[in-house]
């Protein structure tokens, strides 16, 4: 895969390294390198961005993506490639089918399965939160299903998955982490539930913050205090998320509970409905607990991340009520086993 920047003369397909005008490219969608699984063929044409911002053709669809190719890109400081927007459905089909094969393959190690699940979830959540239309919510659900299956049936892979959670303030990263933690804790608390219920719970955990896609990023990342108007906008995101899921046809009982109740509090000071302890569903308590933990351990513009120990201690002493202490004790087990 030569990275020569010479322009190809005459008609025909572009060559690796060829600079391309915006008109030739159309809309491009970024993908993480880790989504191109080693020793598998690229599902579509790949492009990369040069340091000066120009786009070049990198590799043709079908080329084996090996460690040499990945190392070469890392040496160039490349962390993501690009695909054409009209190739996005093909790309997400590749992610889903590859993930299903990896999760079901007994010869693949739990660590490798966990890595594949984490990468796939991050990529699909990034797309769903950026553009929460039905087609992308469906793609998210198709990746969540094998994720739930792995967590429910493989303790070793679950422990590896917990270790892989990233410390980033992006909403899709936060939601990926909450999804992983939420399923893992729900499995401890409600492991007797059917796979179908666990899958619906998983989808609710991963998409609990979908309404944040309607909040301007400068408000989400504001380092200082929010104005009353900004706070009202932020506090609207549970209802906005509920409305998006309802309009796009992805509303379930579990999604309704998790989307609307994950910011409710025992004392009635939560939002959006000001529910008190007896009205908050146990599923929502799980979501709130893991949501708080993830927020405390992530780098945010308005605070530095805490360690796992610091976050759990703070939650036990300052935030959670007696009703949530059993949840916290079971949540700690995820880290005690790791």
TrEMBL record:
<dbReference type="Pfam" id="PF13487">
    <property type="entry name" value="HD_5"/>
</dbReference>
<dbReference type="InterPro" id="IPR037522">
    <property type="entry name" value="HD_GYP_dom"/>
</dbReference>
<protein>
    <submittedName>
        <fullName>HD domain-containing protein</fullName>
    </submittedName>
</protein>
<dbReference type="InterPro" id="IPR003607">
    <property type="entry name" value="HD/PDEase_dom"/>
</dbReference>
<feature type="domain" description="HD-GYP">
    <location>
        <begin position="149"/>
        <end position="338"/>
    </location>
</feature>
